[in-house]
Design a protein that fits this description.
Radius of gyration: 23 Å
Helix content: 55-70%
Order of helices and strands: HEEHHHH
Strand order of the largest sheet: 1-2
Strand content: under 5%
Distance between the termini: 39 Å
Oligomer: single chain
Number of helices: 5
Length: about 180
C-alpha cells in the first residue's frame, strides 16, 4: 500500500532518494562558505567563522545532516542495509528539528549583524564587514534549502511509518450511541 498517484510506492521512494541526494550539495556548500568566511577590517580587526558559536552550530548540524543524508540514500538504494521505516522516521524527525534550530540561530545572528541591538550596545557589523555579511547570507540561503528538504523528508518518513495503521474512527454523535444501546 503506497501513494497511488504517479506510480505508487516507487515514486515515493524515488522522491525520498532524490531529496536525500539533492540536499547534500546545499549542506556542503553552506558549510564551505561559512567556514571560509572571514574579513579583516583595519579599524575593528578580523572577523571569522570561529568567533561565532551560532555559525559553528549551523556547520555542525549541516555536516551531520549531510552525512546522514548520504548514508540514508545508500541504505534506501541498497535496501539490504536498513529496512526499518521507523529508524528513518526517528532520525529524519530529529535531524529536521536540529536543522530548524540551527537555521533559527543563524537567522538571529544575521539579524544582529545587520541591525545590531541598541539595548545591549551591539552595533551593526555589516557596515564595516559587508563581504562577511554577504557570504553569510548565501550560506544561510543554502542552509534554508537543505532545511526545506529535510522537512519534506520528515513528512515522507512519517507517511511511511504511519500508513500501516488504520485511520482513527470518527467521533460518535450522542444520537448514534443511544441508538446502538437500544
Amino acid at each position: 500500500m503506497g501513494i497511488s498517484v504517479g506510480g505508487g510506492e516507487l515514486s515515493l521512494k524515488v522522491l525520498d532518494f532524490s531529496l536525500r541526494l539533492f540536499l547534500i550539495p546545499f549542506s556542503v556548500a553552506s558549510i564551505w562558505i561559512a567556514v571560509n568566511n572571514k574579513q579583516d577590517n583595519s579599524d575593528y580587526g578580523k572577523l571569522e567563522f570561529n568567533d561565532f558559536i551560532g555559525l559553528k552550530y549551523m556547520v555542525s548540524i549541516s555536516a551531520v545532516s549531510a552525512g546522514y543524508a548520504l548514508f540514508a540514500a545508500v541504505c534506501s538504494y541498497l535496501r539490504c542495509l536498513l529496512t526499518k521505516a521507523w529508524v528513518f522516521f526517528v532520525t529524519d524527525q530529529v535531524l529536521a528539528y536540529l536543522m530548524v534550530t540551527s537555521m533559527a540561530a543563524t537567522v538571529e545572528f544575521v539579524y544582529l549583524v545587520y541591525n545590531g541591538d541598541r539595548l545591549v550596545t551591539w552595533s551593526e557589523a555589516c557596515a564595516s564587514y559587508s563581504s562577511f555579511c554577504n557570504r553569510l547570507k548565501i550560506a544561510l540561503a543554502l542552509h534554508v534549502i537543505a532545511v526545506c528538504c529535510f522537512l519534506v523528508l520528515a513528512v515522507i518518513s512519517s507517511y511511511r511509518v504511519f500508513r500501516t495503521f488504520d485511520p482513527p474512527l470518527p467521533p460518535c454523535k450522542d444520537d448514534e450511541v443511544e441508538q446502538e444501546m437500544t
